[in-house]
Structure formats: C-alpha cells, structure tokens
Amino acid sequence: MTRQLPFNEKLLSTVGTPGSAELLDSSPRSHVWRVRTVDGRLVVVKQIADGGDRGADADTRFAREVAGLRLAGRATRPAVAPAVLATDPSARVLVLDHVDDLGRTDDWMPGYAESLARLHALTGPADAGALPAAPGPTADDAESFLALARALDVPVPSVVPGELAGLLERLDPAPHHALLHGDPCPGNDLRTADGVRFVDFERASLGNGLTELAYFRIGFPTCWCALSVTGTPLAEVEDVYRSTWRDLTGTDVPGDLADACAGWLVQGDALVERAHRGTADQLARIPAEDFAWGEVSARERLVHRLHVVAGMTRDHDHLHAFGRLSSALAGRLLARWPRLRPLPTQEARPWY
Description:
Layout: H1 9-15, E1 18-24, E2 30-37, E3 42-48, H2 58-72, E4 84-88, E5 93-97, H3 109-120, H4 139-151, H5 160-170, E6 178-180, E7 189-192, E8 195-198, E9 205-207, H6 210-213, H7 215-218, H8 231-249, H9 257-265, H10 282-285, E10 292-293, E11 296-297, H11 298-312, H12 320-336
Helix pairs in contact: 3-8, 4-5, 9-11, 11-12
C-alpha cells in the first residue's frame, strides 16, 4: 500500500482488525482498498478525497454517497448496491460489503437496465429532502447551445427559444423522486451472479429516472467511455427498464425520453469530465477546438447527441423545430470536420 488505511477505533470495533489490504484503482476523488480482516472477512474501504473536484465539496460528496447507499440498501434479493457496514464522517470513510465483480461481460445491458429501474423505484415523495434534487439544464445552457448554432452559421428558427424554455419547465425535477445514481457508467456497475450493483454514489440525487435511462440513447453523457447503443439492444433495454418500473410501482414511467435526451444535449458540461464542469462554457469551445475525454472527442460526442435528438423529435409536439436545428447543426459539424468518428459500439471499462 502507498496510503495508510484509515481505520479508527470505531471501525476496528465494528468491522474487525485488518489483516491485509490492497489499494485499488479509483478516480482522484477517492481512495479505495480491498481489505481482508484477520477473521477472513472481505470488505471495501472508501475514503472521499479532496482532489479531483477542486477540493471544495468532499464533505458534501461523502454525505451524498452515504445517503444514496443507505436508500439503495432498501433493495434486497437481489441488492442494487453494496451494503454500508460502517462510516467515519470525520475522516470521510465508508466500509462496504465486498461484492464479487465478474468484470466485463457480454450482453450486460438488460441486467443493467433492470437494476437501474429497481434503484430508481426505491424512493418516492416521502423521501423528499433525503438527497438534493437532480441537476439539469439551465437557461444559460440553452442560450449557450443557441450561441453555438449561431457561431457555426446555422440558422435558429424563431420558435426554438420558446421550445427550449418549455423543455426546461418539463425537466424540472421537483415533481419526481426517483433515486438517481448520478453517474451510472461502466466501471460504476459491478456485475454479479445475481445482478448489477452500483457503486460511487457521490452524485446521488432525486429526480426523474428517464434522465438516466437516456444514457443508452445519448451515449452515456457523464462517462469516460462514451457508447452508442442502437437497434434491437436499445429497444430491449428500454423495454426491460419500463417493464421493471411498472412491475414495482404499478405505473408507467413518467415523463418523455425525448425531453431527457434533449436536456443532455444542451448541457455543455456533459462534454467534459467532472473535474472540469462548471469551469467554462464548453459549447463555446467547440468552433475553435476539439477536446478529448477518454477515447472520444467533444465534437464526436456532440454529433452523436444531435443525431439522436433529431431522430427522436421529428414528430414531437414540443421539440419539432429544435429537432430540425439539431439535424442542421450535426450536418454543419460533419461538413466542417468530416473526420469525426461515430461513437464506439463496444463497451470500455476504465478500471479493468
């Protein structure tokens, strides 16, 4: 180990004495160990770090992770997250039950969609205030998107600003109380023999589950490993999600998936990794530079999202003109930069 295992007397008395520990790969925002206690028990120890998010919100991330995991712990048979065994708020340490991960697996998406729906269905109106409301696009995001179109000499239909204003109203998370993971990406999903369990709840929130179901269509917008899912696999995962939600709640999934995808499209911060969000107008950078995140560039992510939204809104009652603008903007990007690649169709798992 290159870091000292952060065990205090409380954790020792609750979990047991560590016998061996292995420091695992993780993001700069945390340190994670796999620990075997002297009595042979395997646990995972996670310490929220000051790095990675400009250091200001480590306590907030710890609180959200604990709250999100405890809410997720309502699910049993099978679980959708590791159980919380102990915490040390003063050191921002969690001890979690160890989960055997199968790693990269074929045909992983239906099981992922089922666990995502089960996670989302765990909370309701009675849980209001247990976590922050999910963040979404803002009026500034909408204006930045329109400014990008103008910068690339793509005409903006006169009705589009009104359509975007209506979109922001419909995406208000206040009426929704689904338990959202906040970053449900490959690498944050442990694939076990009895289903997917999610980890890394530092951005957990309450909102509309469609904002995370939209990941399949919009290319996993908060993820290092952008991915294109189309055709039969896409239809299957959306059917699995909707049927699971219906079985658990007795209702259809609320909201409009096209709205959720359009919301991701206009958010420039969804083009960069977490440490760079909120630092600049990312859409304003697109005409002058292309910037990579993982193996995919910002322009490539943006073109994919534009095509998705254009396709979903051709006959949309509230986003028809916005869809035409999205199609025109995608065409302009590809005409100016013809070497832009489509998103990969195979998963990459950054921690494996």
